Amino acid sequence: MNKLRDNYWVNSGVFAISQRLSIPLFGLASFLVLIRTLSEEEMGIWVIFLSITTILEVARNGLLKAAIVKSYQENKEHRPDLLYASFTLNLVYTLITTSLLLLLSSVIAAFYNSTELIQLFWWYTISAICFCLFTHAEYWYQADMKFKNVFILYFVKQGSFLLCISINAIIVNTPILLNNLVIYQIVSLVLALLSSIGFYIDHFKLRVLLSRPRLLELWSFGRFGFFTNVSNSALTSADHLLLGGLLSKTSVAIYNAAARITNVFIIPSVAIADILYPKAVQGNIKQGTEKVKDLYEKAVGATLLPMIPVFVFLQLFPAFTIKLLAGERYIDAVPVLRISSISIFILPFLKQYGTVVNTLNKPQLNFYFVLALAVVNIGLNYIFISKFGLLGAATATLLSYCIGLIGCQIILKKLANISTLKVLSSSFIFFKMSLNFFSKGIMKT
């Protein structure tokens, strides 16, 4: 029992998966409240706002997260300098992106025929500053492999936002204004920051000088992650953003109902990527690419296993799932769910691909790959949405993922001799282990 408690993968996995579970589950709960209180058009505006601001936050992750983890693990003597350099880069990024967003707000609002977006972007500037502080604590905890602290941060943030909208919609029983949703985001971030106040007290002292080498080190590695994540956001958000411009804000709300459900089931692959990266960096330093290959094949194999019953259920009962989670108004999302649910078998390969190439010090390769895939996805979505509407968006996105799957497996084979068959073999081994585990449990009872 003590060995299990002290095991890195068990301890890290519990909190990393709990954190990743809390994000979409709280998000799903918030979605259930909002989708029943907002009109279809209001829901579409909110989804467009989230899609745009999420691109900025995902790009921040790409710029800083992997670079901080890598520098933290490889340069222990420079950690104090790294702390201040990473915070400075984070703050500068926040100021630049929020300024650009405000400058472009009128253009974006005109494209989507929604003046409400301008007000939302102004409120977002406050939220972005809070998020800068939030992510700095998160990245540092991640680098130090303190996944429990990361879990607490997200639990407080997501939970308090859900609490705010629930009080507004259920207890106070008044209409939820879109501006208020951003205010609730700010409140939830402030509460999450209070939960990490110990981090800032322990680590931050007044300091004027910055370490130029650490800044350059973070930028040198993180710039590829930044552009990769911008491309990745274009890959994952193109369907929503183009639907809003080419069709209507209501179509975005309907499409998002199916996408939300699918996203819940890719949690394991994202959580495993979080705990795999620092371990893969250590493994690459000590044992080389063979260790990275082994970690990738087992991680993806383990992730694929639980996807099978999920996929079968979604294919057999899509209407029931949509009615249960989104309501009768969103029944048009059923065929979209049937198509998008196929991607839960593909995304684990793509998620862990980035982990491997970053570990092998080839972030530029990840960038070019994701950029090419994003361009393909935007092109396909534009063509398919123009011709087929909602189903066109789902089909184009799935087709892009299939192209990405083939491409990333070819690259990984050349880089680390990673085998797709070994991944499937690992999944089968985990399946047999699961059967043995449950059969022994049943026999004991």
Keywords:
19 helices, single chain, globular, 445 residues
Q: What does this entry look like structurally?
A:
The chain contains 19 helices and no strands. It is an all-alpha fold. The chain has one domain. Helix 3 packs parallel to helix 11 and helix 15 (334-340) runs parallel beside helix 18 (390-416). It is globular. The two termini are 21 Å apart.
Please give a quick description of this structure.
The chain is mainly alpha-helical.
Largest sheet: none
Strands, total number = 0
Count of separate DSSP helical elements: 19
Q: What is the CA–CA distance across the termini?
A: 21 Å
Mean pLDDT: 82
Shape: globular
CA gyration radius, whole angstroms: 22 Å
Low-confidence stretches: 1-6
Q: What's the order of the H and E elements?
A: HHHHHHHHHHHHHHHHHHH
Helix content: over 70%
Structural class: mainly alpha
Strand-residue fraction?
A: under 5%
Tell me the number of structural domains.
1
Topology:
Blueprint: H1 2-6, H2 8-37, H3 40-74, H4 79-111, H5 116-143, H6 147-171, H7 178-195, H8 197-203, H9 212-246, H10 249-264, H11 267-287, H12 289-304, H13 307-316, H14 318-325, H15 334-340, H16 347-359, H17 363-388, H18 390-416, H19 420-444
Helix pairs in contact: 2-6, 2-10, 2-11, 3-4, 3-5, 3-9, 3-10, 3-11, 4-5, 4-9, 5-6, 5-7, 6-7, 9-10, 9-17, 9-18, 10-15, 11-12, 11-16, 12-16, 12-19, 15-18, 16-18, 17-18
